[in-house]
């Protein structure tokens, strides 16, 4: 007897799409049976030709609570995640106050999130100047790794690491087998924008700044033996150093984001700072090279870097506006719109947005439709027209660069451990081996 059976002629598994009946018991995938198999179950859902995907794992989400919950919060962010087919998020340690750089700050975060999460939620700790002594205790408390900046973060309470401080943190993290995730831009190659336009903002944060910082991260990883993950790669100039490091056996992985794969600098409307993020959205030729890097596996995964703010901080001046793209609910249709146009399939998207993020963050039982995994499932219509109205999205403030666009594909139902994720929150904290 099963609690739930979801049937589809297009179940997206790590081996590809196949007809199957996904049988769920006690929140886990108990078995994959033939599509038409008669099964005893409390609920039987037949999607017919509509695909069934694994729940997405978004390892780069700024929830901002406690302290800046007027920007975003656990209730609104995780509701948006569930509506977008995301069943697991990993919360970033900054933009909340206090930032998650001590065990006490992690406790404050857990208290703020308790009972409010519509999806399962894990946490990154932070590596900042002077908190090396807190890294191991945070690791033992179950954070997935440690976020650091090599350039200013934009908030005073989360300062960047100098190269010597990064080396010290990486040496400590290597000692307990942890992971450092890095915002990689070289501050020596950044400048203040010369004016308010997007072109001037883009020129102030060149691809060379990303490449230089990535090269530093790789050198420090080789020196210390620490595992490192490069966040939100926007510049294709980073692909060469990453590929060469992998060939030498350096333990480095990297991600990119939907906005770098689907938007382009030449399309940014002047004054529309919903497009502003750091590092910035670059030109269409660079976007094409990012897709090539993703296809070759130089870039491992695609995650949102959902970094919202209140609308008043998005002033129509690219030099002064808050930088961050809000897209947590839209990542799947945004990526699918472009991926399908380029000839990629849902198996590719599931690998980039489910399996690889789960593996990099070390989250077990997530990321694939396989027996033994949590029954995190997404019914997805890949051909549905999906017009975006920012006011209808679940994240707290109605700001997104996708407003007014029509994307391809729509999430119909999201199941979290076998239960629909559109009702009362029943997400759990994923700490340690959970």
Q: What labels would you give this structure?
A:
8-stranded mixed sheet; 434 residues; 6-stranded parallel sheet
Give the class from helix and strand content and strand pairing.
alpha/beta
Strand residues, percent: 15-25%
The major β-sheet equals: 8 strands, mixed
**Low-pLDDT residue intervals, each spanning 5 or more residues:** none
- Which H/E pattern describes the elements? EEEEEEHEHEEHEHEHHEHEHHEHHEEE
Number of domains: 2
Mean pLDDT: 98
What is the third-level CATH name, the topology of the largest domain? TIM Barrel
Helix content: 25-40%
First and last CA, distance: 26 Å
For the record, the CATH class of the largest domain is: Alpha Beta
Number of helices: 11
Total strand count, please? 17
EC number: 3.5.2.5
Enzyme class: hydrolase
Subunit structure: Homotetramer.
Keywords: Hydrolase, Metal-binding, Purine metabolism, Zinc
């Amino acid at each position: 007897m099963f609690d739930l059976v979801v049937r589809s002629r297009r179940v997206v598994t790590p081996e590809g799409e196949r007809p199957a009946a996904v049988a769920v018991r006690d929140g886990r995938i108990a078995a994959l049976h033939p599509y038409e198999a008669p099964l005893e179950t409390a609920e039987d859902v037949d999607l017919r030709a509509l695909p069934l995907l694994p729940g997405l794992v978004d390892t780069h989400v700024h929830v901002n609570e406690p302290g800046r919950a007027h920007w975003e919060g656990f209730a609104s962010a995780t509701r948006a995640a569930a509506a977008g087919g995301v069943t697991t998020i990993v919360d970033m340690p900054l933009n909340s106050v206090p930032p998650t750089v001590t065990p006490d700050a992690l406790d404050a975060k857990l208290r703020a999130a308790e009972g409010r999460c519509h999806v399962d939620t894990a946490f990154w700790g932070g590596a900042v100047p002077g908190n090396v002594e807190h890294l191991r205790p945070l690791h033992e408390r179950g954070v997935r790794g440690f976020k650091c900046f090599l350039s200013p973060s934009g908030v005073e309470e989360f300062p960047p690491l100098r190269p010597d401080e990064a080396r010290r943190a990486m040496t400590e993290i290597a000692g307990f087998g942890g992971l450092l995730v890095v915002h990689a831009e070289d501050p020596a190659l950044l400048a203040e924008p010369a004016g308010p336009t997007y072109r001037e903002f883009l020129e102030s944060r060149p691809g060379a700044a990303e490449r230089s910082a990535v090269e530093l991260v790789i050198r420090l990883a080789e020196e210390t033996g620490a595992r490192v993950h490069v966040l939100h790669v926007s510049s294709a100039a980073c692909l060469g150093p990453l590929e060469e490091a992998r060939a030498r056996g350096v333990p480095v992985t990297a991600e990119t984001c939907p906005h770098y794969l689907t938007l382009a600098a030449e399309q940014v409307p002047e004054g529309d700072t919903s497009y502003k993020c750091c590092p910035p959205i670059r030109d269409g030729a660079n976007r094409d090279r990012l897709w090539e890097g993703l296809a070759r596996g130089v870039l491992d995964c695609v995650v949102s870097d959902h970094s919202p703010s209140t609308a008043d901080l998005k002033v129509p001046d690219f030099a002064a506006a808050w930088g961050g793209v809000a897209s947590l609910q839209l990542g799947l249709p945004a990526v699918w719109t472009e991926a399908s146009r380029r000839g990629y399939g849902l198996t590719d998207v599931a690998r980039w947005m489910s399996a690889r993020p789960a593996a990099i963050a070390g989250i077990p039982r997530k990321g694939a439709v396989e027996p033994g995994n949590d029954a995190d499932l997404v019914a997805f219509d890949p051909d549905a027209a999906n017009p975006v109205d920012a006011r209808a999205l679940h994240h707290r403030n109605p700001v997104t660069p996708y407003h007014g666009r029509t994307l391809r594909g729509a999430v119909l139902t999201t199941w979290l451990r076998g239960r629909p994720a559109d009702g009362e929150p029943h997400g759990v904290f994923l700490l340690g081996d959970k």
